[in-house]
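tl;dr need the bound structure. longer version: we got a ligand (5-phosphoarabinonic acid) that a collaborator sent over and nobodys looked at where it sits. i said id run it. heres the input, straight from their email, havent touched it
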Amino acid sequence: MVIKTNLEHIGEKIDFASYEEKVKEIDASIKNKSGAGADFLGWVNQAEEYLKGEELPRVLKAAKTIQEHYDILVVCGIGGSYLGARAAIEALKGTIPHSGIQIIWLGETFDPAYICQALHYLKDKKFAVNVISKSGTTTETALSFRLLRELLEKRDGKEAARKAIFATTDGEKGALLTLAKKEGYETFRLPSDIGGRYSVQTAVGLLPMAASGIDVTRLLEGSRDAAKEYSNPSLKENAAYQYAVARHHFYEKGKSVELFATYLPSLVQLTEWWKQLYGESEGKEGKSLFPAAATFTTDLHSLGQFIQEGSPIFFETILHLGENAEDISIPLDEENLDGLNYLAGKPLSFVQEKAFQGVLEAHSNIGKTPNIVLELEKMDDYHLGYLFYFFEKACAMSAYLNGLNPFNQPGVEVYKKNMFHLLGKPGY
Ligand code: PA5
């Protein structure tokens, strides 16, 4: 089993039998596309289709072109149009990558200082742009893209800019599709039946990942195999559904926050992706768990006091890896002034594992906070693909258990309307 939902540290036994029928019913509604938001279930078998389809070879070719001709790829997108790629690139290449082209993230903010710094940095560098927007009208992304396009066109000319720009957008409609067609940009498709936060296994996530050197075929194979495993409606066997039911159980018992924690700084962006997935899918109709995240042991030196003894509004979900990507042995120091010789000769992973065990005991047993442990064999391209799908399937199940449409986000429009009105956008 690639991922195990370990419920040994939740301090009780969940009566899974009482959920079985409901889970089967929801599973059937996902399969026969009869539930709320069923027009957005394209992600369910997307990986398998993408592996066989015509776009993957084009993604790989474009990624090669970017690697060969440019030093930097600027990924211009926001929300579901960049979080998955960023999560994967940091998870697999690390936060201080020692190979591959540099990736710069833009299009997710209006901050003039950040955007000016990025443009200043890019002005004399060889860079390509992957602009990603399903709608093409997202203001943060569209504004940054306009500035990037202007920089490229003024500096290198229209033709060179055309070659350096890759657009990922809705396959059928939208402002970016119209612009891309007019300018002749190489264009990748986000199928109309897949929403932004479920789009990491499409060109939205795959092109930046492939350009950064990730084996996206393996990642898709992981998602494809996860789709097979998690199509099993049996709650006894389906680890994604077990996770969905466990979090729903704690919500029903009065918890209002889920704290998702990992032990790897390279997974901070994965927790950002997870926050969006659950926050946008479930935070509606005055319901659902607030998705919060932490990185241990780092955040135990900031939030640790609250987690141990503060208000009991949350449960924890801990991602635990069976293997580390790299390791290092702790050296012996003759003087031992730092008092660390008791660890000499041991690998750092030994310390990390003991920290995990100690924290688990402290939080679940002493602190009485339920801890769900998601055990992932290791973090590589294949396993990350598996994990992405695990969370997506669990999220759909979880939202449906809560009586919600997992695939819309009506609340996001409210700030936009106000902002457009204040900006004087025609029609607002
Ligand atoms: O998940 C979602 O649907 C959102 O986060 C969108 O991805 C985000 O708002 C960006 O939208 P677009 O891709 O249309 O620019």
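gonna send this back to them w/ a short note. DSSP finds 16 helices and ten strands in the chain.
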